[in-house]
Amino acid sequence: MELEPIIGLEIHVQMKTRTKMFCGCINHGEHENPNTAICPICTGHPGTLPVLNMVAVTYGVRTALALNCRILEHVKFDRKNYFYPDLPKGYQISMYDLPVGVEGYLDIPATSGAKESDHRTRIGITRLHLEEDAAKLLHSPDEQWSFVDYNRAGTPLMEIVTQPDFRAPTDARRFLQELQTICRYLGVSDADMEKGHMRCDANISLRPAGSTAFWPKTEIKNVNSTKAVERALEFEIRRQTKLWQTNTPPSTSTTRGWDDGKQATVDQREKEGEGDYRYFPEPDLPPLHFGPLQPIDPEVVRRTLPELPAAKRHRFVEELGVSATDVGTITNDPALADFTEQVISELHAWIRSTPDASDDLLAKAGRTAGGWIASKLLGIGNDRGTSFGESKATAENVAELLTLFLTHRINSTIAQQLLEQMVVTGADPSQLLEEMHVEQVSDTDTLTTAVEAAITAHPGPVADYRSGKSNAVQFLVGQVMKATKGTANPGVVRTLLEERLRSI
Ligand SMILES: [Zn+2]
How far does residue 149's CA lie from ligand 1's centre (Å)? Predict the structure, then answer.
């Protein structure tokens, strides 16, 4: 029997507001010493009253709009009651029947390399609502003691619930990655799953292909990376397929946790029904109204939205000429996207100012810049273990370097060497070029000719090198140095020779 997976996601996103949801305590206090970013409100002392953080509400509206949701005109908070030490008040302030946004959707981008229009999956967004985070529980290794850190209590959260529209674990991963990118573009959260800024529960059931019924679902909790979500879902598909094959498909809804060490989901407590929470309207907060003449007007908020990742990817490919393979990497990080756009704009200006300027060259600019930034610039950072933010290469200098490369003043090997130095020191490429003494022989043509001549004239050392005697290259370097009367940089000559010898 052919089985079809039905997958839905429930995502909690911590918002990076300065203060907490209902008090003036500094948000993100979990990085501080335990229980230092707390006050009587977020520790649930009797007689305290919550004060709503309107920035958090605006962030919720921004995100709901970016997810194409309809914003409700009237919204209210509700109490979700449950008893647990991470919840000092005995209830969580959340939203039950009137969330901020409903009926939205998000299109999952095409996989890298595919044309954007080739494959796109639309995932429905059921709702987006606001609530407060609970405290963090820590347990002693012998499990004799539990500790509560209230720094996280009251952190503003958005909960985003999708329709059960996913049919493949990889789509769930791509959805989460797109949501992360959107949150970063909107500036509402860093959405780092490893750091707990974004937490995801995934629910999954199988059904015979062609059926429209839903079977009891399994909810997977504690998944802390987008890749782990994909793996956990793949594991569940295998586990549930076996149950179907033995005629024992799941008969009740269950909750399982993801064990990263075992790469398996494991049984957890049964899911509580909604009725157990005894939701009722929060009496200490007035209902919220959105619209003209209200403190938050969604149409005004909509005008402040930045260009979103999907639109940026489309524009980078269609207007700037960046390749579909590189555009995902570049637009994942809004700062990197801005940098690339600046490089391409500077590169156009540089090219126009050179005698070699041509439409053909201008057309190549975006593709070349995108490729160099996505693979070489980021690659240098990866090798050094540094992030893009730590690179000292300015957009102007990268554009100048790429002009030298595109107009054949330097070859890709030298351009790569210069870029490595630019990343570390922030130096200007022409200045570096002078220091490397390649300027006088920069016409790589001269060097390439000398390299070719040395290779043709000395088949012995060439054969030695190719049979594994790497020292043989030294003799050839000497020949090129002689031919260029010592004006070439031996390091560069060596690199050029090795590059050429490998390609023979
Ligand atoms: Zn507080």
Answer: 12
